[in-house]
Design a protein that fits this description.
There is one protein chain. With 304 residues, the chain is mainly β. Among the domains are: 57 residues, no CATH class; 141 residues, Kelch-type beta propeller (Neuraminidase), CATH 2.120.10.80. Helices cover 5% and strands 45% of the residues. Strands 1-2-27-26-25 form a 5-stranded antiparallel β-sheet, with no helix packed on it. It has a 4-stranded antiparallel β-sheet with strand order 3-4-6-7, with no helix packed on it. A 4-stranded antiparallel β-sheet has the order 9-10-11-12, with no helix packed on it. A hairpin with a 6-residue loop joins strand 9 and strand 10. It is globular. The relative contact order is 0.15.
């Protein structure tokens, strides 16, 4: 092969994958801005349910144990010093991978995980597992059981959202939405008959709901919903950043920005995403099957 052609090919490939000299990692264009993907931690087995505590600049998440016995672990990652720590004291029932899930469970064991959530107003950190709901005590670095498992908290909750210390959660097999306030659980009246696999509520009293049919938005107190066109199959999770913008993510399909005024989803990141959150600088933090990443604006003139 002609050397000039070879050098041109190498340059093109470097531009596509963002690995040209001077770049610390792959480069992605998000909202028109080049962002460098940095690795925060490797060797994390399917980290999911990412959440961010702004008071300590710390990420919380669940991840899986070894390949033979399925057990969910919970971890935290301090963005100030890049220290990772496994959170002990959370009960989780171990499952032999040879066991078969119940016939009414839609989800494979590959995707079962515990849940974490941070209340954006109080900065209280919550963890859900088969043992019930826990609130993480930042002074003792220990989770404290705040509501034991009951008939409304199934072994595997598929979502957890907290606002003003009210816990919103959905359960298997019907995926009805419940709230827990002051230790008392009740069905969420606005969505009593709706399946809810993912939910967030913004500061404009908009509820965003995802289920098998796609993504919807409706006002609190209303039964009228707006359907996001072409959203079916594109929402594995929903998150809100620190300024109230809503995002959806869906495995290998990437990340989508959700409009609160229209029924449009705009794809902003094309990468594999198992979990997603945003740090205090509005930087996107996400995971794939083995790694934890952060996207930061590219300010290096040597990396274009």
């Amino acid at each position: 092969m002609n050397l000039q052609v070879l050098f041109c090919l190498i340059a093109v490939l470097g531009s596509v994958f963002g690995q040209q000299s001077g770049c610390k990692g792959p480069v992605f264009k998000v909202n028109g801005v080049n962002q460098i993907r940095e690795v925060l931690k490797t060797n994390l087995n399917s980290a999911a349910s990412l959440s961010y505590d702004s008071s300590t600049n710390t990420l919380f998440f669940s991840y899986r144990s070894d390949k033979n016995v399925y057990s969910v672990l919970f971890g935290k990652f301090n963005l100030n010093n890049n220290e990772f720590e496994t959170i002990s004291g959370v009960e989780y029932q171990q499952i032999q991978l040879s066991n078969t899930l119940s016939s009414n469970s839609f989800i494979s064991i590959e995707y079962i995980h515990g849940e974490t959530a941070v209340d954006a107003k109080t900065n209280n950190v919550y963890i859900q597992s088969t043992g019930g709901f826990y609130r993480y005590n930042k002074n003792t670095n220990r989770p404290e059981l705040c509501s034991a498992k009951d008939s409304n908290i199934a072994s595997y909750a598929y979502m957890l959202f907290v606002k003003s210390d009210i816990i919103y959660y959905a359960t298997d097999p019907n995926f009805y939405l419940f709230i827990m306030e002051n230790g008392v659980a009740s069905k969420f009246k606005d969505l009593e008959t709706n399946q809810v696999r993912e939910l967030v509520i913004d500061d404009y009293d908009n509820i965003y709901i995802a289920n098998d049919t796609g993504l919807y938005r409706q006002k609190i107190g209303s039964q009228k919903a707006v359907y996001y066109k072409e959203s079916k199959g594109l929402v594995d999770g929903l998150v809100i950043n620190q300024v109230g913008d809503v995002y959806a993510y869906a495995g290998s399909s990437g990340v989508y920005a959700i409009s609160r005024n229209t029924n449009v989803m705009e794809k902003i990141l094309d990468d594999t995403v198992l979990g997603l959150t945003f740090d205090g600088g509005y930087n996107m933090v996400y995971s794939d099957k083995t790694n934890l990443f952060i996207l930061k604006p590219n300010n290096d003139p040597n990396c274009v």
